[in-house]
Amino acid sequence: MKTTLTTIGLLLLGIHVTMAQDYTEAIDKARFLIEAHRQQTNIPGCQVAVMVKGQLVWSEGFGVRDLENGLKVTTDTKFRVASVSKPITAMALGKLMESHQLDMDKDIRTYLPTFPDKGYTITARHLASSTSGIRHYNASDPEFNTKHYGSILASLERFENDDILFEPGTQYAYSSYGWVLLSAVMEKASNTSFFALMENTWDELGMDNTTFDYPDKRVDDTSMFYVYDKKRKPAPTENRSFMYAGGGYLSTANDLVHMGDVLISDTYLKPETRELLTSTYQLSNGTDTYYGLGWETGTNRLGSQVFFHSGSLPTSVAHLMIYPEEELVFAYLANTGDHVFFNAREAQSIAELFLEEKALTNTQIQQLLGSWHITTTSLRNKDSEGLLRLSLDEDAMISGSMTFKRSKKKITCPIMVSTINGGEVHLIAVSPMFIDMYVTLADNAKAFTGHWLHDFNIKGIPEKDPYWAPRKIDGIKIDHQ
């Protein structure tokens, strides 16, 4: 009866949970991290969803979509997905590849003869893998575009006469404009307007809450968007018609995880097409770029394969993470990106809560509770001292606070125990960037030793810059709770 009543209550609050497996602990931890980060960065509203093995196990809205009117974010609220538009566009690209309407290795001028000759052959594969040499945004582009383009072809004028940055295929340089050019190629290759092409794709995928971010049409249940100027305020008017394929869609976390699940279930695209989209592109010299055709790819800290994409605008943050072996899909959307630090590493830390974890024993719980005097080494290799307090909250989660010095200032940030693996305890502090601590308790349980990470390592590639290398952290128990 309690489970039934709890489930009904969650549904009434717009929180959808599938009870096939109990993910309550992972949800509680994820909610802790999201709320701690949202409060520190003054994000008005955000939205998350998690799908595991084809089941929606969590979907929830946080905060408000409209500050002035106090309208809450629901699971149906639409957000700008920024560059997560690229893997969405890649679903339609995959279909064109399978139908042989688009040859990925033909010169794009076969389809677009009016596009200026750049002295080299540029292919659709180059555009989708960001190896074309077509530029990304630069200082000549307005932060908030107001010019309207009535067609995809018209929007090419922003960059079509610029020199390319390098010979295609020889270097990687992330390019949203490359995806705009690709959408024009897709339009010509399919003999279908890009708008109809994507709308048909969304219909086929069952993405009912995904659409273009039209500048001249009001889309129901769309969030307001915010920037920061001493406080959160509505963002200036923006026209995204110059950037649809690379960063101009509206969607929901539910639609994104559904799309991700469809992708890994191979019910929409063939397995070999999925492999092409999500495998790293190799440059002409054999170097891996860790970017496929609209997807970043790598291995996470747990050794799991992951492909993903992130997006960031002054008005939004978006993340879509897929762990194909575990059949886990995670999405996060927020209605501001200005003065917000929430990168792919933070998104992965939350998604990984839903991967297999080992629960703490009662003995381990008691050993961790209480106050700890900590000594740490900072990113600037300065030693400092602090205090860690851990207690068991009403959700049976070990959480608390960590106080330490950063940039000569003493800060206190929320912290929680994430998982334990082989005796190593993983804690996550929110500062608002996530600080990952990996510590091992001494045999007498009165001290611990370990290291902390504050990095961007999201592809399994060690950081080249020693500034982001792991730093030491040790603890001595002060009291027991």
Protein architecture, described:
This protein has twelve helices and 20 strands. It is of the alpha+beta class and 481 residues long. It has two domains: 82-338, DD-peptidase/beta-lactamase superfamily (Beta-lactamase); 362-479, Lipocalin. Strands 13-14-15-16-17-18-19-20 form an eight-stranded antiparallel β-barrel. Helix 3 (85-98) runs parallel beside helix 6. 44% of the residues are buried.
Structural class designation: alpha+beta
CATH architecture assignment name of the largest domain: 3-Layer(aba) Sandwich
Number of helices in the DSSP assignment = 12
Determine the mean pLDDT: 91
Largest sheet: 8 strands, antiparallel, barrel
Number of domains: 2
Number of strands: 20
Shape: globular
Quote the beta fraction.
25-35%
Euclidean distance between termini CA atoms: 33 Å
